[in-house]
Amino acid sequence: MKKTALIFAAIFALSVNTKAEKIKLIIDAAHGGTDAGAKSTNGDKESDLCMQFANALKNEASKKNIDVVMVRTADEYKALSERNNFKPEAGVKSLYISFHMNAEDSKTARGAVIQYNSKAKDAAATRVVAEKLQSSFNRLNDMGTVINENCKAMVIKSSEIPAIIIEPGYVSNQQDLRRLKDKGIQQEMAMLIVKDIME
Ligand SMILES: [Zn+2]
């Protein structure tokens, strides 16, 4: 009897410990300052849209006891080398998310893209997150979500923690652009991301 109680106590302690694992989310709104990134035909800047998605994610993550680090909080230039120097920490599940917006000359390309690097550190864990996000985003929109596992961006391929780029859509496509500027869509996407990384 005593032994059983001990075992239960041990299992309880283990499960409590797992639940208590801290989640740290590093949110990078790409571009900024002198680097506006892509622009829509109306002059909407990629850097501003990235910031809006980043802020929406910060707000949703903060409601769920997730530690949030913002790479930039203002419209300022940050060198690539300053954007992801994050190191793994014991007992902390870290994830780096960089928001970009897509753009193409064709104007017809649309939909979300999730990028990671299958040869980067912790790629297996990153792939799990990318695939969860893909199916969640597909439920949110009718655009389809593509995964690119050969991302060459330095902040992703050299990352020491799981790292992904999320491109919620194309500023070069009018249907996408309308959605990208929609606060409701920004918030819905943020809620899906938070749900997926907490599972
Ligand atoms: Zn970009």
In brief, what are we looking at here?
The chain is of the alpha/beta class and 199 residues long. The protein has one domain: 3-Layer(aba) Sandwich (Aminopeptidase). It is built from 7 helices and 6 strands, in the order αβαβαββαβαβαα.
Bound molecules: zinc ion
Distance between the termini: 34 Å
Mind telling me the C-alpha Rg?
Answer: 18 Å
Give me the CATH architecture, please.
Answer: 3-Layer(aba) Sandwich
What is the helix fraction of residues, given as a range? 40-55%
Low-confidence stretches: none
What is the CATH class name? Alpha Beta
* Secondary-structure element pattern, one letter each: HEHEHEEHEHEHH
What is the CATH topology classification name?
Answer: Aminopeptidase
SS-derived structural category: alpha/beta
Note the total helix count: 7
Mean pLDDT: 92
Main sheet: strand order: 2-1-3-6-4-5
Structure description:
- Strand 1, helix 2 and strand 2 (67-70) form a beta-alpha-beta unit.
- It is built from seven helices and six strands; from the N terminus they run αβαβαββαβαβαα.
- The protein has 199 residues and is of the alpha/beta class.
- Helix 2 crosses helix 7 and helix 4 (123-140) crosses helix 7 (183-198).
- The longest helix is centred in the first third of the chain and has 18 residues, at 2-19.
- It has one domain: Aminopeptidase, CATH 3.40.630.40.
- It has a six-stranded mixed sheet.
- The mean pLDDT is 92.
- It binds zinc ion.
